[in-house]
Structures are given as C-alpha cells and as structure tokens.
Known about the structure:
Elements: H1 3-21, H2 25-42, H3 47-74, E1 89-94, E2 102-106, E3 109-114, E4 124-131, E5 134-139
Parallel strand pairs: 3-5
Antiparallel strand pairs: 1-2, 1-4, 2-3, 4-5
Keywords: Membrane, Transmembrane, Transmembrane helix
Transmembrane segments: 5-27, 47-69
Subcellular location: Membrane
Amino acid sequence: MVVWVFWLIAAGVLFVVEMMTLTFYLLWLSIGALAACLVSLLLPDAVLLQVVAGSLVALGLTVFSKPLVARFRSSRGFQDTGTDIVGRQGLVVEPIEPGRYGQVKVGGDTWSATSIESLGKDEVVKVVGRSSTIIEVVRWGDMY
C-alpha cells in the first residue's frame, strides 16, 4: 500500500471519530495526518519526516488553538449549546445502571447518559451535568 493512502485513511478515521466526540483534539490529529499525507506525496520514502510533520502540525494546532478557543468562549454573547441541556427534563429510552451507559431523550435529541442510580425505561429524569457527549441524570424530583 502506498504510504499516502495510509495517512489519508488515518485522517478520515480520526475525522469520523471526531464527529462523535464533539472535541477538537482528534480534529487536530486528523489535520496532522493530512499534513503527513501531503509530505508523503512529495517525499514518499521519508517516513520519519512524514511522522514529524504530522506531529508538529497536530501539536501546533493543539497549543495555539487553546488560547483562541478560551478567548472565544469568554467573549460576550457566547453561549455553549451543550450547557443549555443542564437542568432540563428528559425521558429514559434505554435503562441506565450505575457504571453503565443508557440513553435519554432530551428535547428532540437522544444522549448517552450515566447515573448514580438505576433508572428504568420511560422514567422522567433531570440532567445535572454534561461532559462531551455524555450527560449525567438523576430521577426527576430526586435532586440532592
């Protein structure tokens, strides 16, 4: 297999996984893999240079994007759509056991959810926290 194809496949896989995580880290790695792909097209035998170029691009994007994202998030009028979900009511569509994920429908969206208590299907819950694509819920009315 030609090396640039490997880098292109790696970039595509990382990008697809990134779409499921809602973070930017895998996106930066995906762009780094694309940079390595470009280097491999120019210098197909310089594998070490491809790895270094991809790593430097991913590292640079990670380091330099953090301050920009922090500034953007602290700007006036910024509203993270994910934090709006905290405090809302949801409905369990797949039972949740402590330490295992279930599914909760909040509004029109279905989220992976965890809880410190067992929750059965069709129970009404309240969202008390969110981390990336997973929400934490409690039984409605059982707020601690």
